[in-house]
Design the sequence.
């Protein structure tokens, strides 16, 4: 245990790593705060859920509509005119008329505008989803990406299965739950793409540097002859691996806690944790976000967090194995960066008619870069239901084997 | 007892040691050879840092690599280049090494205090080592080698960086330690070991040349070492015909110490050979190459 703590201390007291951790945390806080100008508007969803419940039903929509009508009457009291919609009022509003209304009036008008937006979106869900043909969309994707042969067959098979899941999701009405308007606020992308990717890349940088530092510390400080001739000898590498994994976990936890703490402090998710992640309101781009399983926002967040932690531990393990061979933290860092990018680009080198196209995308790099679309069938060419667990399982085996081989090699190698 | 049996070490086409056989019991052994002769290779094999390409090394009849930590827990080792962590104090560094040596924290703290006093570093126990002189660092190195009270103590060039006073203190310390353990000192400085080693091991051309007492090794040159005084002008010719060991300018003449095998001349004075004479004689080719 003492050796393990000594090894952890080497990384945790490294000035450059401490400085990087502070800079990254500050940067993440800046990104979140600077994108939080709409945080008050998001509270509307919480109000809606409070009043009408999380699920969108015909009855709740009727009540919602009734309430909007009442609000329009109140608008009439403010403006002196009857409007069918607050948008009609806003479209006809001249610049010089704006000052006629008090801040309180504007607060009411903006709130009504949001209510109408959410009501309108909720009303059009059935229509929008009825237009979606998953199978035809898949065929379109095949044409767009120029995929043929065995690859096209595999893709179509999986896409048909996803079409079934899509039908099931619609029948279950998982999509009919309130969430922040995706096309207006892009909260899913902001959290899971922007914020998460920042944290992942930053913690990866720290983890790779720390793991390499711990593993190569003796060689870089020229104490290897001393440490590896002690009783602990080369088994010290086991302590180093354990220390690397522990420090990686601590660093990731710190970065996640600081960043996500800031995020959820600013953006109130208190009423949407149980909303389905496949909610129609979470539809941001051309196709709605639809997961293979019925996952709530909270479950999805936990799932992604678990996934990210496992990925980072695997990256730490792979860095450890690389460092044992390379024995230089900086060379290890650049080698890792190169391999990460190569892993991400690997599918682009594959023939588009072969299943290798899909097999080559089962890399930790692709899984990392596509983290916002985890567990989703609406995930382009990596729509596969087994993508996450299969990638993790394969790379866990690869990492364990790689670590075992390099450890065995290290046990036998000459230390100069 | 350590037995080195038919040990060879090769790095690709380069042979560092060839077919070396040695036996070590308790006592102090001086491993004497010029730089690059293979001393460090042998030492690293004894410290299990590198493995022999051929042959085996046994400790009390068991292969040291198979014994693994059971062998290394008996070992104290000071490498030629003693690395340290600049931002650690001697106490922090020795505590870390004590953990690696399997010594409990409480025992380690007592031992560290005792050893740092022994190597005269008591007043800098908590100072960062980046401010230390070469001699102080070397003394920390000596202290760490003794942390686990080793049965086998291997010191590679231990006097590098030590001043004459520290060297004398160190020799005294080694004499004490060698009473009840096996001490191997690798050096190319003859005076470090001449007066204290029970046996001297010399390696030449990758092979064992001598493993004997200082007296017996010196006896190989009995009657061959002379001193005489010559004119400075004669020095070049004298060098060509004899193996010069040392030369000293005195009152306008040169006093030379040299080896001559064969008939001596009347003005030459036969002197008892020293270990340094044997060293200079045996390694004359390597030393000339260095010059």
Sequence:
């Amino acid at each position: 245990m003492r050796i393990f703590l000594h090894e952890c201390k080497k990384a945790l007291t490294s000035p450059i790593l401490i400085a990087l951790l502070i800079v990254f945390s500050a940067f993440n806080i800046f990104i979140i705060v600077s994108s939080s100008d709409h945080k008050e508007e998001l509270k509307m969803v919480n109000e809606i859920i409070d009043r009408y419940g999380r699920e969108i039903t015909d009855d709740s929509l009727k009540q919602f509509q009734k309430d909007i009508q009442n609000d329009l009457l109140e608008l009439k009291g403010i403006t002196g005119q009857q409007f069918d919609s607050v948008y009609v009022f806003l479209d006809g509003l001249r610049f010089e008329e704006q000052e006629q209304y008090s801040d309180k009036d504007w607060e009411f008008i903006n709130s009504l505008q949001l209510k109408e937006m959410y009501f309108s979106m909720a009303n059009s869900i059935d229509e929008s989803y009825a237009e979606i043909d998953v199978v035809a969309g898949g065929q379109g994707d095949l044409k767009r990406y120029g995929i043929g042969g065995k690859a096209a067959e595999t893709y179509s098979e999986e896409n048909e299965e996803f079409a079934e899941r899509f039908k099931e999701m619609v029948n279950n009405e998982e999509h009919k739950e309130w969430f922040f308007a995706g096309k207006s606020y892009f909260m899913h992308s902001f959290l899971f793409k922007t914020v998460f990717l920042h944290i992942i890349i930053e913690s990866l940088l720290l983890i790779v540097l720390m793991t390499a530092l711990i593993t190569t510390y003796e060689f870089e400080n020229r104490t290897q002859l001393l440490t590896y001739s002690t009783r602990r000898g080369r088994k010290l590498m086991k302590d180093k691996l354990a220390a690397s994994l522990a420090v990686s976990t601590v660093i990731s936890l710190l970065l996640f806690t600081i960043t996500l703490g800031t995020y959820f402090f600013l953006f109130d998710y208190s009423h949407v944790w149980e909303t389905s992640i496949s909610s129609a309101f979470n539809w941001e781009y051309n196709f709605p976000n639809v997961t293979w399983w019925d996952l709530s926002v909270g479950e999805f967040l936990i799932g992604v967090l678990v996934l990210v932690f496992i990925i980072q531990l695997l990256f730490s393990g792979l860095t450890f194995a690389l460092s044992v061979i390379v024995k230089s933290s900086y060379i290890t860092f650049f080698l890792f960066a190169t391999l990460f990018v190569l892993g991400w680009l690997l599918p682009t080198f594959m023939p588009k008619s072969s299943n290798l196209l899909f097999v080559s995308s089962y890399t930790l790099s692709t899984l990392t870069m596509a983290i916002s679309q985890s567990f989703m069938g609406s995930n382009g060419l990596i729509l596969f239901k087994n993508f996450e667990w299969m990638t993790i399982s394969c790379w866990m085996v690869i990492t364990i084997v790689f670590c075992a081989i390099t450890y065995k090699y290290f046990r036998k190698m000459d230390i100069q | 007892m350590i037995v080195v049996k038919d040990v060879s070490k090769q790095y690709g086409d380069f042979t560092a040691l060839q077919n070396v056989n040695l036996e070590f019991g308790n006592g102090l052994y001086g491993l004497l050879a010029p730089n690059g002769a293979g001393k460090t290779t042998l030492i690293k094999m004894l410290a299990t840092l590198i493995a022999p390409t051929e042959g085996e090394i046994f400790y009390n009849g068991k292969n040291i690599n198979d014994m693994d930590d059971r062998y290394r827990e008996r070992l104290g080792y000071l490498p030629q280049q003693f690395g340290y962590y600049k931002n650690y104090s001697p106490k922090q560094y020795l505590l870390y090494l004590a953990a690696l040596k399997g010594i409990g924290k409480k025992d380690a703290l007592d031992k560290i205090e005792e050893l740092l006093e022994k190597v005269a570093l008591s007043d800098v126990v908590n100072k960062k080592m980046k401010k230390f002189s070469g001699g102080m660092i070397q003394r920390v190195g000596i202290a760490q080698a003794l942390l686990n009270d080793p049965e086998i103590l291997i010191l590679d060039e231990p006097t590098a960086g030590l001043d004459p006073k520290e060297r004398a203190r160190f020799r005294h310390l080694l004499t004490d330690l060698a009473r009840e353990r096996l001490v191997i000192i690798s050096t190319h400085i003859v005076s470090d070991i001449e007066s204290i080693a029970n046996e001297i091991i010399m390696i030449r051309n990758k092979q064992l040349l001598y493993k004997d007492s200082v007296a017996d090794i010196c006896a190989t040159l009995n009657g061959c070492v002379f001193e005489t005084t010559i004119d400075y002008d004669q020095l070049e010719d004298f060098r060509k015909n004899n193996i010069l060991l040392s030369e000293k300018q005195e009152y306008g003449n040169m006093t030379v110490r040299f080896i001559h095998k064969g008939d001596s001349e009347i003005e030459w004075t036969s002197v008892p050979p020293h270990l340094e004479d044997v060293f200079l004689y045996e390694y004359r080719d390597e030393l000339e190459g260095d010059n």
About this structure: Chain B has a mean pLDDT of 89. The interface with chain A takes residues 44, 47-51, 68-69, 72-73, 75, 77, 79, 81-85, 96-97, 99-102, 105, 144, 148 of chain B (CB under 8 Å).
